[in-house]
Structures are given as C-alpha cells and as structure tokens.
Amino acid sequence: MQRPDTEGTPFDDLPLTTEVEQALSAEDDVSQELTTTQHVADSPAEISSAQLSLSKRLLNWRTLVPLAIVLALLVYTAQKLQINPGQTWAAMRNANMLFFLAAFLTYYLSFPIRAARWRLLLENVGYTGQGAIVLPKTGKLLEIVYISWFANAIVPAKLGDFYRAYLLRQEAGVSATRTFGTVLAERLLDLAVLLLLFLAAIIVSLRENLPDFLRAGLYITLAIVLLGIVALFLLRIFRAHIRRFIPQRFQNYYDHLQEGTLGSFKRIPLLGLLTVIIWLCEAGRFFFVALSLNLIPGGLLHIGAAAMFIALGEALLTIVPFTSGGIGLVETGMLGMIALFTSARNLGAAAVLLDRTISLFSILLIGLIVFLVASGRRAARKRTLSQKP
Fold this sequence. Notes:
Blueprint lengths: L17 H21 L15 H5 L2 H20 L4 H9 L3 H28 L13 H17 L4 H14 L3 H30 L6 H33 L3 H15 L5 H26 L6 H18 L11 H10 L6 H43 L2
C-alpha cells in the first residue's frame, strides 16, 4: 500500500518494526480480498454488525433509563423557570423563516466539509486510491458521516464513531481499527479548535461571567485535549514498549489503531482550516436562530460572539455521552447560557427548540431516511454478490 507524500510533523509515522510491517501487509492482503470478492464480509476480530445493532442499543435499558432521568430533569427545569408552552410556541411561529432557513443551510454546509476533512485524514494514513484499496467518492463519505451523526443521535456513548469505521470497512474493505484511528484524530482536532474558539467567544461576550457548569465543562475539555496530546506523544515514543503489554492476538489491531491515529496528523494547516470552518458553521446555526427571534440585544459582533459561545457550549455538553444526542443535558445547559444574555425565558426556550429542530430532530428524520436507503442498497448488493456463480 502506497503512502502519500506529505510534509512532516511531530506525529509522522517512522518505519515500523519488521513484525509490524508484516502485520500491516497481511491486513492489506485481506483488504484486497474483501474488495474483489466478498467486500462486505465481517471479521470477528474487528467491528461487527452485531456489536453495532442500532435497534438493540436504542431499546437497551442503559439507553432508556438515563434518557428518562434527564428528560424528567428538563421538565423540572422548565417548570422552575416558569416557561409558558403557549408563549413559547407563539414565539416559534413568529420567528423569521428566512433566518431560520439560513441557520439550517449553514449547519448542513458543515457536513460536506466534514467529509472532505475525513478524506484527508484517510489519505494521510495511506488510503490514497493508488493501491488496491480505493476510497469511496466524497459523496459516499458524506453519506457515511451523516449516518454516523444519526447513530449518535439515537444511541448514547458516541456509537456513531464506531459505526462510521464499520461502514467504511463495508464499502472499501479497509481496516476498521485503522479507520477508527482517523476518527479519534478527528475528535482531538475538533476538541482543540473548539476550545480555542470557545475561549475567544468568552473573552468577547462574557469575560469573567462564566457559569460554573460551563467552567467545569471547559476544564474537562481542556483536560481531554491535553491528555490526548500526551497520549499521542507517548504512543509515538513508547509504541514498541506499549506493544509488549498488549496480548499477542490484539497486537496487530493495536498497530493499526496507532497508525491510524498518529498517521492522521499530516497537512495540519489544511486540517486546521477545515476544522475552524466546521465550527463556524455550528456557531452560524445559532447566530441565525438568534436573529430569527431577535433573541439577543446589541450589535452583530456581540450577537455573533454570544451565538458562538452558546453553540460551542452546546457542543461541549454533548461530550458527556450520557444520553442519545445529549437530549436533556443540552437543552438544560442552553437555557442557562441564553439566560446570561436575555431575561426573556419563553423566547429562550423557543430558541432552544428551533436550534434543536435543526441539530437533532432534522438529523433524526433525514438521517433515518438516509440510513434506510443506504441499508437497502447494501442489502441489494449482498443479494447480487450471493447470486453470482
């Protein structure tokens, strides 16, 4: 498998030991066989469809019980804040639909950018399309990314990230563990840029008036980013020593995971730029929602900084994988953040519902359609392959 020629970084992959190279070569052989003959076969040692059954996860008590608890907390919070459902609904009906449409389009602009960024990460780890493994087109990667968002919206614990690696393995016969390494690298990029933009939004909009629960979330995110960077350097420096502590049957997968993670950090300026644009799209979503309701008083700079603070604070709350799509936690946190800029509680509740209509409910509806269509195509392809002599 050929690797792209890219500029060096502190995370560039040095030549692996002979044993590791043999393991990677063996996996590439398997990937070629999957691509040309079976293509959609499952490997018991990698991520399987049984492990990622969305229906089983959705109906599991570990999903339903936390969801019920947090929804009860959300209802209690709404009652304590004396939010009037009738006035909230009236505010939503009177929202400027042009601004709401702009919020919807701005948010969905982030998905093709996410797909393009993921392609870069995959190319960084060697999936260049020049060898036996050919990556799907960007449109197909966009479909996979969107389905992973749908999975994250219906089940907790960020299952969609694993599901993304599984779906790409089904499409291209690549290593699921190495692919998941690119997803881990992507998450670390997201957290680092999110943290920087969130701090900038605080400086402009709130200065020292940061709520305790967001301050705690900020510290947690900072700790995760720092631990992630430290872990990358430790993997880089001591990967051979760490490998000795891995059971032999899992060593190949450890090699693929660390290659996928460390190998992703090339072309950093371009990856960083795409990540900034993605988070500006997230902030732009709530900016237009706020304009549609005349939610936040002041000039556009203040409204933009406040919108960035609220939207990125919302993203921080979704880091806690307690409920599906952050339901309950996100809405409660957003009400608290909006209260820092306006005392109009019903208008704030309307903003939360309009924002979540875009970032959650549209994902559930459109994602279900995309998921069913993609599943139907995969089933048809399996039938076609099984009928071939």
